[in-house]
């Protein structure tokens, strides 16, 4: 009888942030030994030979469109894109049809996921008009990730009403994640671009001020012990508000780390996204905040829409870009380019989001944790092509851009999935 199910031999791993070579043994879906040389036999040996063995990425912000909008994506296709790209846990957002606003809608998604999901998946429930009691009944469900709050209107009709938020935060001891563009600023700026706005005005109609006001509202609510998290930071000024508020966590999306308004205008509606792609000084500030840890996590805000939907006129075309196929390769490209240390990249992709979500069983290569991991060759590259993508929407804002290579192999609970 072999002692292990799987042993990765001579893998490059991060041990307390340090670059180390070790054997990593897996048994029963868990990592059971990490040593310079693991003695004993295994059913499967993987010779790593200089490649990194990294903890599976945890994407805490995806829109899988299932149920109701499955022509854009569904749980099967979205989680396939995840695993192909090294993502082993995703958290789905509630703006589906019907929206996730109750225990019944949460359980319906979890039941579907049990049948078709390729990776582990959790679901955020939206705080709506008056569903605090409904959300309370979701606490304790294994698939419940936390509460999603929309401070400003974006894709879908979900908007959290004033007064409800304060009551919810008092009543529910859970993680709250915010789409933090402030609705009053959005309404004030509606007419700013004249009667026929086009994509060049998107970042003026939804200015950085909206994100700053949203961040201020959240900062004003923060108290010790609360779990408040700001989604998709997009502006340098937003960072300043958050830096002054200990205890808040935040994430940045790859499209805000990679693109500026100069890219967004020629891309037409493809880079129309909320919050918008902003200017170079914002991108630079976001990159350095990710590098120094002020921004804890990378999350995609994977928001697939079809090319047909995106090619409608500006005012009708939906906002959002897909990102699951490319999150890990784009972030590791920042390492290859010298913008980010390997330790910060792995922390932002895996360790920090697992910690924010309260998932203590993942996010690191460590004994006792889930064997969710991927193997990555640090000298590999991938120039993104449509044909390589698994997302149902079939396109990526990173097409024809050279990223780091995709994983050579991906394992969830010790089972090879890609
Ligand atoms: O651009 C966006 N698209 N921002 C959001 O907040 C929602 C998302 C979507 O669901 O399409
Ligand atoms: Zn959002
Ligand atoms: Zn989103």
Top keywords for this entry?
418 residues; alpha/beta; TIM Barrel; eight-stranded parallel beta sheet; four-stranded mixed beta sheet; 14 helices; globular; binds (4S)-2,6-dioxohexahydropyrimidine-4-carboxylic acid; binds zinc ion
Short note summarizing the structure:
This protein has helices at 75-84, 103-116, 132-136, 164-171, 183-188, 202-205, 208-221, 236-243, 254-258, 261-264, 280-292, 307-310, 327-336, 342-357, and strands at residues 4-15, 18-27, 30-35, 42-47, 52-55, 57-62, 87-92, 120-126, 144-150, 175-179, 227-230, 249-252, 297-298, 373-376, 381-383, 402-404, 409-412, 415-416. Helix 7 (208-221) runs parallel beside helix 8 (236-243). The radius of gyration is 21 Å and the shape is globular.
Protein described:
The chain has a single domain (56-357), classed as Metal-dependent hydrolases (TIM Barrel). The protein contains 14 helices and 18 strands. It has helices at 75-84, 103-116, 132-136, 164-171, 183-188, 202-205, 208-221, 236-243, 254-258, 261-264, 280-292, 307-310, 327-336, 342-357, and strands spanning 4-15, 18-27, 30-35, 42-47, 52-55, 57-62, 87-92, 120-126, 144-150, 175-179, 227-230, 249-252, 297-298, 373-376, 381-383, 402-404, 409-412, 415-416. By secondary structure, the chain is α/β, with parallel strands linked by helices. It binds (4S)-2,6-dioxohexahydropyrimidine-4-carboxylic acid and zinc ion (ZN) (2 copies). The site of one zinc ion has 5 residues, from loops.
